[in-house]
Design goal:
Blueprint: H1 4-30, E1 36-38, E2 43-45, H2 51-62, E3 79-86, H3 91-101, E4 119-126, H4 127-139, E5 143-148, H5 153-156, H6 189-192, H7 196-204, E6 222-226, E7 249-253, H8 255-265
Antiparallel strand pairs: 1-2, 3-4, 3-5, 6-7
Helix pairs in contact: 2-8, 7-8
Length: 307
């Protein structure tokens, strides 16, 4: 072919460019992250999982749980509202900044503006734009409030207090993010569900609690034992939540079930640090940012867990 070498070089350049953008750039961006010290808690986050939970991660993978559950609290692009509550000591500069942000306010009589406060200035704009405006107004001496205009469905339904970030997975090898949600997200299951027995019963038969559940049963993770006359069931035998074993039989978790439940209870991506701080939603009442760093959103009331 007359232009064969040029075509080859063109294809090579396209493949190389794709590799640089999709592989190398993310590696330089987040590939060298380290655990971060949370001074308030005195821990390095993320905390390393105990041995039984590490073994449970392998059970989780072996059972294919990642095919039906994700481990990522998703957050749609953040939008924010910005309100001016006080012009501050340098009202002239504040009015100038306000006029540059809202051209429709440029003709407002500056002497009347304080009487009309608090004044919504920006509504449902990108969080980056709202934060930049907050810095400009703060530098001018104004008092402003920044509130989050949207949470996203994952946070709203109680699957997490914040979105998950790359740092959350530093202790996971491999990372099992999942793609499909036949069941709820599990990134923060250990934060919203702490009852081991309830998780054991979910694994044994999810339809005991939720009739019609599509979650498969895992009876082979449990052992049936026949009780002698008058013998009491073991302390770790399945019980409660409406479950009744067959007469004269106890059902106890095998080591694999204990390890899997330990892993599920260790799934907590709710620790807050700088890169995950977000302001409270407007419906939470108080504004999250008032001339200062964003505060953590309040933890929503969790719905019943459905691993």
């Amino acid at each position: 072919m007359k232009h064969g070498p040029l075509m080859f070089l063109g294809v090579l350049a396209a493949v190389l460019a794709s590799w640089l953008v999709a592989v190398l750039a993310p590696h330089f961006q987040i590939g060298h992250e380290e655990p971060i010290l949370i001074e308030e808690l005195g821990i390095n986050y993320p905390v390393d999982r105990p041995g039984e939970a590490k073994q449970g991660a392998e059970v989780y993978r072996a059972q294919g749980c990642q095919y039906c559950h994700t481990r990522q609290v998703r957050q749609e692009p953040l939008f924010a509202d910005l309100t001016v509550t006080d012009l501050g000591t340098n009202a002239v500069e504040t009015r100038r900044v306000v006029a540059s942000l809202r051209r429709d306010l440029a003709g407002v009589d500056g002497r009347r503006l304080p009487e009309e406060l608090p004044r919504p200035l920006l509504k449902h704009v990108s969080y980056a734009a709202a934060e930049a405006a907050l810095r400009r107004l703060t530098n001018a001496g104004a008092q402003v409030e920044l509130t989050l205009a949207n949470l996203g469905p994952d946070i709203a339904r109680g699957w997490g207090a914040r979105r998950t970030v790359a740092r959350d997975y530093l202790r996971d090898h491999p990372v099992m993010l999942g793609q499909v949600r036949f069941g709820p997200d599990l990134a923060n299951l250990g934060a919203r569900q702490t009852n081991e027995m309830r998780l054991y019963l979910k694994l044994y038969n999810a339809r005991l609690e939720l009739p019609g559940s599509t979650m498969p049963r895992y009876p082979y993770l449990f052992e049936e034992r026949r009780l002698r006359p008058g013998q009491e069931p073991s302390p770790d035998a399945l019980r409660g939540f409406g479950f009744e074993p067959p007469p004269g039989i106890e059902i106890v978790p095998r080591p694999e079930a204990r390890q899997l439940v330990a892993y599920l209870l260790s799934l907590k991506a709710d620790t807050l640090f700088y890169e995950t701080y977000v302001p409270r939603p407007a419906s939470a009442g108080a504004a999250a940012v008032t001339n200062g760093p964003a505060a953590a959103p309040p933890a929503p009331t969790p719905p019943p867990a459905q691993p």
